Amino acid sequence: MKPLIIIGAGGQARETAQWVEDVNQTLQEPWALLGFADDHAANEHMNILGNVDEVCANVDENVYFICAIGNSAVRQNLVERMESIRPACKFATIIHPSAVVAGSAKIGSGCLVAPHTVISTDVRLDRHVLINYGSTIGHDSLIHDYASIMPGTSVSGQVTVEALAELGAGSVILPGLTVHEGAVIGAGAVVTTPIPAHSIAVGVPAKVIKTRQENGRKADA
């Protein structure tokens, strides 16, 4: 069995633990979930091994990690901290067995692909991408590092979602468009034009309503 620690202890982490259990039913060499690492959690119902830095520094070199954090900027911060502590840090990729993944798709390390998702022909997911429940990624789309695709999102063909962008639940991105770095698309929005970097866009069709600071925090409106 391959040892695995989940980074985080919130809802996404608990969901990921279930996905790991489901994935294990299909693997010849299943994951052995050792527990969770989190800087703030004190949940008596979860096996919290310690804070992220301590766990990363002290566990065996054969242990894999998966960063189960929904927020893109927080996920990036944690991964970069871990890699500064342990340059050879190993990250798992978890793809739920109910996901439909094209043979030509490329999925990077640290990605989480949830139940009932579709990853179509010649899609590329870079590192630490989250594709949540029931989302569809159309042919030839590129999803860059730390992007987060929330439940029920439809990304059409030949779309580019740049690093740290977040697509809200039920949003739709029309073919060939780019959602630029760090942009946020509101739940249920329909994107019909490219979205600038670090913007927040909502509505049908989606309109930019404000910008964000580059670290992911909202700027003053």
Automatic annotation (TrEMBL):
NCBIfam families: NeuD_NnaD (TIGR03570). The record marks D140 as: Increases basicity of active site His. Residues 4-81 form the PglD N-terminal domain. Pfam families: PglD_N. It comes from Paenibacillus swuensis. This is PglD N-terminal domain-containing protein. The active site is at H139 (proton acceptor). Substrate binds at G70.
